[in-house]
Write a structure and sequence with these properties.
This protein is an alpha+beta fold. It has 2 domains: 1-40, no CATH class; 44-79, no CATH class. It has helices spanning 2-7, 26-33, 46-62, and strands at residues 14-17, 37-40, 67-69, 75-77. A two-stranded parallel ribbon has the order 1-2. A two-stranded antiparallel ribbon has the order 3-4. Helix 2 (26-33) links the parallel strand 1 and strand 2 (37-40). The longest helix is centred in the C-terminal third of the chain and has 17 residues, at 46-62. The chain starts with a helix and ends with a strand.
Length: 79
């Protein structure tokens, strides 16, 4: 998470995830320690997952084309 935060040119205030195991406990507390709000998608609300998936598509179409990306270490904006 620290690596990802260094790559963004702005402060991230909140992260929203589903309720799967990988986003529980350690991840949750790390986000809290970094001063961000960690929101879980409410259980039994599949319409929220649709919104999250749509946001992924928007990011893929609108943001990723601005990147010059060769691997996980080389992530640079094409501005």
């Amino acid at each position: 998470m620290n690596y990802v935060l260094k790559k963004f040119p702005f402060r991230i205030n909140a992260i929203q995830t589903n309720n799967k195991y990988e986003f529980q406990s350690t991840f949750h507390w790390q986000i809290q320690d970094l001063g961000m709000n960690h929101k879980f998608i409410r259980v039994g609300t599949p319409q929220l997952k649709v919104k999250v998936e749509r946001s992924h598509l928007t990011v893929k179409k609108d943001f990723y084309p601005l990147l010059s990306y060769t691997d996980d270490v080389d992530l640079n904006l094409k501005l």
